[in-house]
Write a structure and sequence with these properties.
Length: about 475
C-alpha cells in the first residue's frame, strides 16, 4: 500500500523531473548530492552566480543581425550562458547540416562568444539569400541576367570573345574538324551542315590551321575517340552518382586537357586545395566579419614557364621579378599562395558540381573572383605598381570569364568590373558532356577562351602591372 509519505515523494520526483527539463535559463543551486550532466558538447560550464543575482531580472536579449546566418560578427549585448547543465541534452542532428558559406576566420571566432555562433545556426539558409549576401561585400557582387543584346551589356574587352562564343554555342559554327567529317557524322547519326566544320574545309585530306598547330586527320580521329570515351565516363558518373572529385578526374580534367593540348601557353590547373590568402579575403560591410576562403576546381592560366619564344621569356622574367619584390606574405601573382600558381596568372576560373543546384557554385565563383580583384588592387596600390598618371585615372580590372559545370551542363559567365561593384553577367549555355555535339562545343569554347587569354588578357597584364621589357 502506498503511504502518504510515498505519495509525496512521487510528487517531488515528478516536480524535480519537470524542473530538469525546463528550458528556462534560471537554475536553482545544486546540492552536493545532485549529479551533474557530463559535458558532452566540449563546452566550458559557466561560473555559478548566487541565487540573488539570478532573480534580479530577465537576461538581456541579443540584437539579431540581418542574415547573420551568413555573415557573423561580434554582438554588443550580453550573451546568454554558454551551456545550461540542467538543460536536457539535445541531439547532434545539427552537426549533420552543411557548413555555412561564410564564417569568421579563426582569430575572430576565438574572441566571439560561442553562443552567438550557435544562434546563427538556428535558421536554415535559403539558396537565394546566400547568393544575395554577396551584395554585403565591401565591393558588392551582383549576378545579372545576360540580355538578348549582350554586346552592349558587356565591356569592350570581351565583346568580340562573346560574339565568337555565341556563334560556337548557339549556331554550332566551326566546332568540328573536317578531317573526320565522315566518322563524326556516323557517330552522331545525322548529316552535319558545312558551317559546323572549322575552316570551311570539307576534304578529309586537308590540314586546318587552328591555334598554334595543325589539325591532322590522325589527330581529329584521336580527338573523336577521346570525346566518345569522355561521354561514356560522364554518363557513368551520373548514373552511379559519383562524387565531384570523380567527375573532375574522369570527365572535366581530361576534357580540358584535350581542349588545350595544342595551345602554346594556356594551361589548366586543378586547384581544389588552393585556398585564398588571408590578405585577399574580400572585406564586408559588416564590422568585424569577413568571408570564408572559398575554393574552386580548375583554372586556366597564362603559363609562360617552359615556352621558347623570347617575348614569353621576357614576360615570365618580369612577372617573377615583380613577385619577388612583394612583401613576404604576398609573393604570388594571384589570390592564393598555391605553388603551381605562383607565377602563372589566373585568367578563367571553373567550378564543377556533381549534382544539385548551381547556387553554391555561383557563390564559390563570386568569392574567388572577388579575392582575385583584391589581389590586383593590391598591386595597383603598391608603390612599385604606381605610374605617373595612376592618381588621375581609375584602373579597371579586366573582365574575367567564369565557367560553371553542374552534372553534364556547362555555363559561361563574365565577371565585369563596374568600379564600385562587380557584376557577374550570365548565364550562357556552352555545351554538355552528354552528347558529342555538346562535347565538341565545350572544346571549341575552351579553345576560344585560350586564344583570348593569350591576347587580350596577356596585354592587360603587361600594361596594368607595368612589366618592363615584356
Amino acid at each position: 500500500m502506498t503511504t502518504h509519505a510515498d505519495f509525496l515523494a512521487q510528487i517531488q520526483d515528478w516536480v524535480d523531473g519537470i524542473s530538469a527539463e525546463s528550458p528556462s535559463v534560471y537554475r536553482w543551486p545544486l546540492s552536493p548530492e545532485t549529479p551533474r550532466y557530463i559535458n558532452t558538447l566540449g563546452m566550458t560550464t559557466p561560473p555559478s552566480s548566487g541565487p540573488s543575482k539570478r532573480q534580479e531580472g530577465s537576461p538581456r536579449k541579443r540584437r539579431r543581425e540581418p542574415d547573420n546566418d551568413i555573415f557573423e560578427g561580434p554582438t554588443t549585448d550580453a550573451p546568454p550562458p554558454l551551456y545550461d547543465i540542467d538543460q536536457t541534452p539535445k541531439s547532434n542532428a545539427s552537426n549533420n547540416r552543411p557548413s555555412l558559406p561564410y564564417r569568421l576566420p579563426t582569430s575572430a571566432r576565438s574572441s566571439t562568444n560561442p553562443s552567438s555562433t550557435t544562434s546563427s545556426h538556428r535558421r536554415s539558409n535559403s539558396p537565394t539569400k546566400r547568393t544575395q549576401n554577396l551584395q554585403v561585400l565591401e565591393k558588392p557582387i551582383h549576378y545579372i541576367a545576360l540580355e538578348d543584346n549582350a554586346t552592349d551589356q558587356l565591356p569592350s574587352d570581351v565583346r568580340l570573345l562573346y560574339n565568337r562564343i555565341y556563334n560556337i554555342a548557339v549556331e554550332h559554327e566551326l566546332i568540328f574538324p573536317p578531317q573526320a567529317r565522315h566518322e563524326i557524322s556516323k557517330a552522331i547519326g545525322r548529316n552535319i551542315r558545312d558551317s559546323w566544320f572549322s575552316g570551311g574545309y570539307t576534304s578529309e585530306e586537308d590540314e586546318v590551321q587552328e591555334g598554334d598547330g595543325h589539325v591532322s586527320r590522325s589527330f581529329a580521329l584521336a580527338e573523336l575517340q577521346a570525346l566518345q570515351d569522355i561521354k561514356a565516363e560522364a554518363r557513368e558518373c551520373l548514373r552511379l552518382g559519383r562524387s565531384e572529385a570523380a567527375w573532375n578526374l574522369d570527365v572535366h580534367g581530361p576534357l580540358l586537357k584535350l581542349a588545350l593540348a595544342q595551345h602554346r601557353c594556356v594551361k589548366k590547373e586543378l586547384v581544389t586545395t588552393a585556398r585564398i590568402a588571408s590578405p585577399f579575403l574580400p572585406p564586408t560591410n559588416i564590422p568585424g566579419s569577413s568571408v570564408e576562403s572559398k575554393m574552386i576546381d580548375f583554372v586556366l592560366v597564362l603559363a609562360l614557364d617552359g615556352v621558347s619564344s623570347d617575348s614569353d621569356k621576357r614576360l615570365d622574367e618580369s612577372i617573377q621579378k615583380k613577385i619577388w619584390s612583394q612583401p613576404r606574405d604576398r609573393q604570388f601573382i594571384n589570390q592564393t599562395p598555391y605553388p603551381p600558381l605562383q607565377f602563372r596568372t589566373i585568367a578563367v576560373s571553373i567550378e564543377t558540381k556533381a549534382a544539385g543546384s548551381a547556387e553554391e557554385g555561383r557563390l564559390q565563383l563570386g568569392v574567388w573572383t572577388a579575392a582575385w580583384h583584391q589581389r590586383m588592387n593590391d598591386f595597383f596600390n603598391s608603390d612599385s605598381a604606381k605610374t605617373r598618371d595612376s592618381a588621375q585615372r581609375q584602373r579597371t580590372i579586366v573582365t574575367l570569364p567564369l565557367l560553371l559545370s553542374v552534372e553534364h551542363n556547362w555555363k559561361l559567365f563574365f565577371a565585369c568590373d563596374r568600379g564600385d561593384r562587380l557584376e557577374v553577367v550570365g548565364e550562357m549555355s556552352v555545351g554538355d558532356t552528354n552528347t558529342l555535339i555538346g562535347l565538341y562545343t565545350i572544346v571549341a569554347v575552351v579553345r576560344e577562351l585560350a586564344n583570348w587569354v593569350d591576347s587580350t588578357f596577356r596585354k592587360w597584364i603587361i600594361d596594368t602591372l607595368d612589366l618592363p621589357g615584356a
